[in-house]
Design a protein that fits this description.
The chain has about 575 residues and is of the alpha/beta class. The chain folds into 5 domains: about 1-55; about 55-80 and about 90-110; about 110-290; about 315-415, no CATH class; about 420-575, no CATH class. It has helices at about 1-15, 25-55, 65-75, 95-105, 120-130, 145-155, 170-175, 210-215, 255-260, 265-270, 310-320, 340-350, 405-415, 435-440, 460-465, 500-505, 510-525, 545-550; strands spanning about 110-115, 135-140, 160-165, 190-195, 205, 220-225, 230, 240-245, 280, 300, 305-310, 320-325, 330-335, 360-365, 375-380, 395-400, 425, 450-455, 490-495, 535, 555. The strands form 3 sheets. It has a 17-stranded mixed sheet. A two-stranded parallel ribbon has the order 5-7. A two-stranded parallel ribbon has the order 10-12.
């Protein structure tokens, strides 16, 4: 076969033999002859490979199934998502002619237009979509490349089904007027500022142009505005299922008139969204006054997430207006000193519902720097992989503690359904906790099996473990039962970042080590109490402490011994 191909080609290239490179004209002609032969051979090889690939089983797949496989792959491997494989799923079209032809003949595969590969790639993808509705997702910087993308986006906005634009306010103001109003196919609009120190402008917050905000888009369901706003009476808000508005607190002057609107307008806007599923509002609330809606309560039966961030009066006011399904996640972050009394009635009604839902499972209480607390709760433990995350909390309350006391936290804990909690993590920062404080916060947690405690208050927590729920020492009772014991079902206690030797001075006969052993011994003497396992993590504890504890409980120690320097404040929360 080799001889056949050689004999077939040689007569056509024999004239190129013996030509000197110094003869520029003859050499150029000879190179062209050889290049033509190489091209012909390449085409012949491609044809042979195509015929060979046609004999594989996968070539028998109908084009519809192959396209469906490509769609799944495209969702997993987006272009420009991996530095080593910049083309993402598009690499699959380079495998063989059949796969390439199949992909090119399917415009829907190219409708998620990627601008991160550059304007040339974006333009090619736009051509391949033909007349199909498209998704435009681009981060436009103030460069010549960004300007090219801007011009390209403007030409195709009329076909946009989804728009996600990250750009400076000046760029957004230029491009938005090109959007047809109203668009009959637009379903998603997400606008946000381009965070660049050189591009960030004073007018970070700007108003969505009236040509857009003043129209009702028949198919628009998802609207996310960061750094820009619309008036609550704007028609664009009607019929949404997802609404996010987030203003930049550093540049509030531009939105001064918008923020002075009446809370009633916000309430009317929510009424126009009866199918709302996700509501995220950040620093965009009307200034007030916020009064109870009385009997005028808005029911949003499809809600999945309510996330509010701003002044406590506004956050609590919005929450009190709404009646949400029990499965809805509620996350409230207060940016000022909060009077939790304005939220307790709503919380009691919301968290106490949901008979058919999994019971509340995990509770986390940690400091909200510089003051205050974060109270976070989750229902099913299997909802997270390694440790619970605040963004996924079923209930989240962040508040500043204007009293500099534990009273607001205790009041909140009296409302929360703590009876089913199985796992708890408590870190209270600089607050001093007495035994009654621990019992006042966690005394209603009768099902806890695992606890995480960090900081200097671990020793007082251990002392509370030898108390009853009415603050009486177990040692003073003749026949204490498990039901009366504080956290009577606790099996595992994880102690994190407690510098035992440096924090506590050993003075006999009432040394902290001896007292700790005594408290745990008294607890273990209570009938039906499970044997306790203590996990010591990053504590720098001395080995003699560990050996003394092992006489009473099971100890799992990471081996870190001796005094430890104080860790940064934020690291103490990484305790799971």
């Amino acid at each position: 076969r080799e001889a056949f191909w050689f004999n077939s080609v040689r007569p056509r290239v024999i004239l190129t033999e013996g030509i000197s490179p110094r003869d520029k004209t003859a050499a150029a002609h000879a190179r062209q002859v050889l290049d033509d032969e190489l091209s012909a051979m390449h085409l012949a090889i491609c044809s042979l490979r195509t015929r060979r690939n046609a004999l594989s089983l996968i070539s028998c797949l109908p084009a519809e199934i192959l396209v469906r496989v490509f769609q799944f792959y495209a969702a997993l491997q987006l272009p420009a998502s991996d530095k080593q494989h910049r083309l993402g799923w598009i690499n699959a079209t380079h495998v063989c002619r059949l796969w390439r032809d199949t992909a090119l003949q399917c415009p829907t595969l190219w409708t998620d237009v990627c601008f991160a590969l550059g304007p040339q790639w974006a333009e090619e993808m736009l051509c391949r979509t033909k007349t199909m509705p498209i998704s435009l997702r681009s981060s436009v910087a103030g460069t010549s490349l960004g300007l090219s993308s801007l011009n390209l986006i403007s030409k195709h906005l009329h076909r946009a089904r989804d728009i996600l634009l990250i750009a400076s306010p000046s760029f957004l103001k230029l491009i938005l007027p090109h959007l047809p109003s109203p668009s009959s196919i637009l379903e998603t609009m997400m606008l946000g500022p381009f965070y660049d120190a050189q591009l960030l402008q004073i007018d970070t917050n700007f108003e969505l142009p009236g040509i857009i905000a003043g129209c009702r888009f028949p198919r628009l369901r998802h609207l996310s505005l960061r750094g820009c706003w619309v008036h609550w009476s704007a028609p664009i808000l009607c019929g949404l299922t997802y609404l996010e508005i987030q203003l930049n607190r550093a540049h509030m002057d531009a939105a001064d008139g918008y923020l002075k609107s009446s809370p009633k307008k916000l309430f009317c806007a929510l009424k126009s969204m009866p199918a709302l599923e996700i509501l995220i509002l950040t620093d965009c609330f009307p200034s007030g006054p916020w009064i109870d809606g009385g009997s005028d309560i808005l029911q949003l039966p499809r809600m999945k997430l309510l996330r509010l961030h701003g002044p406590s009066a506004a956050c609590f006011g919005v929450a009190r207006w709404l009646r949400l399904p029990a499965r809805c996640k509620v996350q409230i972050r207060c940016s000022d000193g909060a009077d939790l009394a304005g939220l307790l009635q709503f919380l009691h009604a919301h968290v106490g519902a949901g008979i058919n839902l999994p019971p509340w499972h995990t509770l986390q209480i940690v400091p909200n720097l510089p003051s205050g607390f974060r109270v976070e709760m989750w229902r099913p433990y299997h909802a997270f992989e390694e440790r619970p995350k605040a963004d996924n909390a079923d209930l989240l309350i962040w508040f500043h503690d204007v009293e500099q006391s534990l009273r607001p936290l205790k009041v909140l804990c009296q409302v929360l359904p703590l009876e089913t909690i199985r796992i708890v993590c408590v870190i209270v920062g600089t607050h001093d906790l007495s035994l009654s404080d621990w019992i006042g916060i966690l005394g209603r947690c009768t099902e806890i099996q695992q606890a995480v405690v960090g900081g200097d208050h671990a020793l007082s927590f251990c002392k509370a473990l030898s108390m009853t729920t009415d603050c009486r020492p177990v040692a003073s009772l003749r026949n204490c039962v498990q039901e009366r014991l504080f956290l009577g079902k606790l099996k595992v206690l994880r102690v994190v970042d407690v510098p035992f030797p440096s924090r506590f001075v050993e003075v006999e006969p009432h040394s902290p080590r001896r007292q700790l052993v005594q408290w745990l011994t008294e607890r273990q003497h209570v009938e039906a109490v499970p044997r306790l396992t203590i996990q010591l993590c990053r504590c720098g504890i001395k080995e003699e402490w560990v050996e003394a504890l092992r006489e009473v409980v099971v100890v799992e120690w990471d081996g870190i011994e001796g005094s430890m320097e104080r860790r940064p404040a934020l690291e103490v929360y990484e305790v799971w």
